[in-house]
Specification:
alpha/beta, 5-stranded parallel β-sheet, about 50% helix
């Protein structure tokens, strides 16, 4: 569906990801200037992330900042614990499998890149049925809503086989409840937002923290 970003697109993608908290104050021209690219490239990356344009991405973030939701600081020490637990489980897994659908594939590819840099062999599953040959290891599932049927079914099949499940998904979701270890994201899902992309940067931020911890372990 979507390969991980390469070249100048990678620079733009990582710039947006690392400046997520104050992205509403940054213009496309500033990103283009700081990454030595063009505003056209900035918009192209935003479209791959599931937004119509950079303007829409900024709007979604501005709106989310003023929408009552569980405060991010509440996740402070809890997030540190989860990062530690997830990193430890991945580092000690005999086999690592990754699965996501739709726009969450962007986050999955980002995690795959970190695992490669940390020299942790892994396999991205494209189909649920690939799990039939798997008998041990850890399955990482990434989902904004946590209600995607194929991911829930895969998680249940994996648990029956004795695999451990790491889920990066919305807190309180079905997927969160059946996972071995969950990074619970404070995403407000309702009939309208379910089809929008405002949760994607929360997914990317979680993956980024896990990936950075994996690389720290790798250098120790």
């Amino acid at each position: 569906y979507m390969n991980s970003f390469q070249g100048s697109e990678r620079l733009i993608f990582e710039y947006i990801q690392h400046h997520a908290r104050n992205i509403s104050d940054i213009s496309a021209k500033e990103i283009a200037r700081d990454t030595f690219t063009t505003t056209t490239s900035v918009n192209r990356v935003c479209k791959k992330m599931g937004y119509k344009s950079y303007t829409e991405l900024r709007y979604r973030f501005l709106r989310d900042h003023f929408t009552p939701a569980p405060a991010a600081p509440d996740m402070g020490s809890q997030a540190d614990d989860i990062v530690t637990d997830v990193s430890r489980l991945l580092t000690h897994s005999s086999h690592i499998y990754l699965y996501a659908r739709g726009a969450s594939l962007t986050s999955l590819n980002y995690l795959s890149r970190f695992l490669s840099l940390a020299s942790l062999p892994h396999l991205i599953l494209n189909d649920m049925h690939q799990l039939t040959r798997v008998s041990k290891g850890t399955l990482v599932l990434i989902s904004k809503s946590g209600e995607t049927q194929s991911l829930i079914e895969m998680a249940r099949n994996a648990l029956r086989k004795g695999l451990k499940i790491i889920a990066i998904t919305r807190q309180g979701s079905t997927l969160a409840s059946i996972s071995t270890l969950c990074w619970p994201l404070p995403i407000d899902i309702n009939a309208v937002s379910l089809y929008q992309r405002e949760g994607q940067l929360e997914l990317l931020s979680a993956v980024d923290r896990i990936g950075c911890r994996l690389l720290q372990h790798d250098t120790v």
